[in-house]
Design brief:
Elements (H helix, E strand, L loop, with lengths): L7 E10 L2 E10 L2 E7 L2 E8 L4 H11 L9 E5 L10 E6 L5 H4 L6 E3 L3 E2 L5 H7 L12 H5 L1 H8 L1 H6 L3 E6 L5 E7 L2 H14 L9 E4 L5 H9 L4 E4 L5 H10 L2 E7 L2 E6 L16
Parallel strand pairs: 3-6, 4-7, 11-12, 12-13
Antiparallel strand pairs: 1-2, 3-4, 5-6, 7-8, 9-10, 9-11, 13-14
Helix pairs in contact: 1-7, 7-8, 8-9
């Protein structure tokens, strides 16, 4: 089982308010490196908020194409907080996983903000064999509008620190299945997908992934890898994210706030009726 890690740190700060300064205690979101190793290879280093590390590693291995199924993870050795190598996870993979041929391309460092840096392009993802998502699911726009308050209400650590991103998996009718927080939005997504992978729930057909912040290229490719047909975000997607979503059939929604959202790709999965522009014949 995964070790429970501390995700909040208490510190002393000086607060200025309405002309008065005072020393007060404040909460910070913890940020620490995590390295993943298998055999003699380093699979990657990411800056993350400790907690749910087992899910993070499993999700990372899957969404980055290092493994393709749960059974290829034989064991995850999760260190304790007292371990000198407490930020090192040792992964035992099935012998069929060929690290010698693909690990060189995966020796990178991932910052908490940028995701997997220097990675690639849509062309590389095509080579990975990511498949176009089926268009069977249909979602109610009213259900989508209910997701932001449900996400916010469940963000326990964010409520105390104000410094974390969140990713939440919802069922077809808007029920919250799992929420994970992290200083990096891509890490939060990997934790959610890792939760599903370890639970034998992939692919996540008919589900919605909702993320705080923007819907970037990395998050789009992870969503597609997990078989999730709809990705929604509080902010805007990037141009490359939209391009990838359109090419591989992902429904991509941005600016989901209040009773408004923008559909960038996959409109056919959302039960909306588009009115003609004013003056159109």
């Amino acid at each position: 089982m995964a070790q429970k890690k501390r995700s909040i740190e208490l510190t002393q700060v000086t607060q200025w308010e309405d002309g008065k300064a005072a020393h007060v205690e404040d909460y910070l979101a913890v940020e620490e490196p995590l390295e993943m190793r298998a055999r003699r290879y380093s699979l990657g280093v990411t800056l993350r908020t400790p907690g749910d590390d087992q899910e993070l590693v499993a999700g990372f291995l899957f969404t980055e194409g290092i493994i393709s199924r749960r059974k290829e993870i034989v064991a995850l050795r999760m260190p304790s907080d007292k371990d000198p190598e407490r930020n090192l996870v040792r992964v035992t993979l099935d012998p069929s996983v060929r690290l010698a041929t693909n690990s060189a391309a995966r020796r990178f460092s991932a910052g908490s903000a940028c995701g997997v840096c220097g990675k690639a392009s849509i062309t590389q993802l095509r080579r990975r064999g990511l498949r176009r998502l089926e268009a069977a699911a249909l979602f109610n726009p009213e259900t989508l509008c209910e997701l932001p308050p449900r996400l916010r209400a469940a963000q326990e650590v964010f409520g105390r620190t104000g410094g974390l991103h969140a990713a939440a998996l919802f069922g077809p009718t808007g029920e919250l299945l799992v929420l994970r927080e992290d200083i990096g939005r891509h890490n939060a997504v990997d934790k959610v997908i890792g939760w599903a992978l370890l639970g034998g729930l992939l692919p996540l057909t008919g589900h919605v992934l909702f993320v705080s912040g923007r819907g970037g290229f990395e998050i789009v490719q992870k969503t597609i890898a997990a078989g999730i047909p709809l990705l929604a975000s509080v902010s805007a997607p990037s141009s490359l994210a939209v391009q990838l979503a359109r090419e591989l059939g992902l429904t991509l929604v941005g600016f989901l706030r209040g009773r408004r959202f923008v559909i960038y790709s996959g409109e056919e999965r959302i039960a909306v009726s588009v009115s003609a522009p004013a003056g159109a014949s």
